């Protein structure tokens, strides 16, 4: 089973700052199948990035993804007030077929 | 693109079965992978399993002995049945679709239901 680890657990930043979130896998993940989600309280997760670096429909270009192998990064270039939320990475391909990381909370400093 | 809506009992007694239905609005269930995912209060996300097309299913091995996912394509619905529930099964349950980019399988969940909170308690 591939285990995804996210760091930091919490990121405290101010609006306008840059956020860098890390997702590390215990084994190599195909870049085609690494995704990132945003979740706000009381809401379902929203797909931001799939294929490690492809923005989903309607996602602003301040969100970008990168990485390969076991190390992946989600970057938010300039935080907007609506970006403060929990972010999850997710992989597809290893049993269980889909697994999620534990999440990184981005909160207001 | 369409949207998804979960429905079913919000309270289930221990040892009984949890059954939820997801209705797909604005699209067909054909040709996609339809999933159940859950999230215990204050915790992370756990994939439960999916059903595809004519009814092939794959489940999370940690739940496989208790889970059945089925579909009724005439109603654009798919369902989750989880047997022998305990308090550990208390969670928000989401249905979600795995998306495609053209013909390419995305391996990511592009459409989600709003989620339904199910509590296991006597």
Protein model, in words:
The complex is a heterodimer of chains A (109) and B (122). Chain A has no helices and 10 strands. Chain A has strands at residues 4-7, 10-13, 19-29, 34-39, 46-50, 54-55, 63-76, 86-92, 98-100, 104-108. The model of chain A has no long low-confidence stretch (mean pLDDT 96). Chain B has 122 residues and is mainly beta. In chain B, 0% of the residues lie in helices and 57% in strands. Chain B contains no helices and 11 strands. The radius of gyration of chain B is 14 Å and the shape is globular. Classes of the chains: A mainly beta (109), B mainly beta (122). The A-B interface holds A 32-33, 35, 37, 43-47, 50-51, 54, 56-57, 88, 90-93, 95-103 and B 35, 37, 44-47, 50, 58, 60-62, 94, 96, 99, 101, 106-110, 112-115.
Architecture blueprint of SSEs:
The complex is a heterodimer of chains A (109) and B (122).
Chain A: E1 4-7, E2 10-13, E3 19-29, E4 34-39, E5 46-50, E6 54-55, E7 63-76, E8 86-92, E9 98-100, E10 104-108
Parallel strand pairs in A: 2-10
Antiparallel strand pairs in A: 1-3, 3-7, 4-5, 4-8, 5-6, 8-9, 8-10
Chain B: E1 3-7, E2 11-12, E3 18-25, E4 33-39, E5 46-52, E6 56-59, E7 67-72, E8 77-82, E9 91-101, E10 104-112, E11 116-120
Parallel strand pairs in B: 2-11
Antiparallel strand pairs in B: 1-3, 3-8, 4-5, 4-9, 5-6, 7-8, 9-10, 9-11
């Amino acid at each position: 089973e591939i285990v995804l680890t996210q760091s930091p657990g919490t990121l405290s930043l101010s609006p306008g700052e840059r956020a860098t979130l890390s997702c590390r896998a215990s084994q190599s993940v195909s870049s085609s199948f690494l995704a990132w989600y945003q979740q706000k309280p009381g809401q379902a997760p929203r797909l931001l990035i799939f294929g490690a670096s492809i923005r989903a429909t309607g996602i602003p270009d301040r969100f970008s993804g990168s990485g390969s192998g076991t190390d992946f990064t989600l970057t938010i270039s300039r935080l907007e007030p609506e970006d403060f939320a929990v972010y999850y990475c997710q992989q597809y391909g290893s049993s269980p077929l889909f697994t999620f990381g534990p999440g990184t909370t981005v909160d207001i400093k | 693109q369409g949207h998804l809506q979960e429905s079913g009992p919000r309270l289930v007694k221990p040892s009984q079965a949890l059954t939820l239905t997801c209705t797909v609005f604005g699209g067909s269930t054909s040709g996609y992978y339809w999933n159940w995912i859950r999230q215990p209060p204050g915790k992370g996300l756990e994939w439960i399993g999916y059903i595809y097309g004519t009814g092939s299913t794959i489940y999370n091995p940690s739940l496989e002995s208790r889970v059945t996912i089925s579909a009724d394509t005439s109603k654009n619905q798919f369902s989750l049945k989880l047997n022998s529930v305990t308090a550990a099964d208390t969670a928000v349950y989401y249905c979600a679709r795995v998306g495609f980019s053209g013909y390419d399988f995305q391996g990511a969940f592009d459409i989600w239901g709003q989620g339904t909170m199910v509590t296991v308690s006597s």
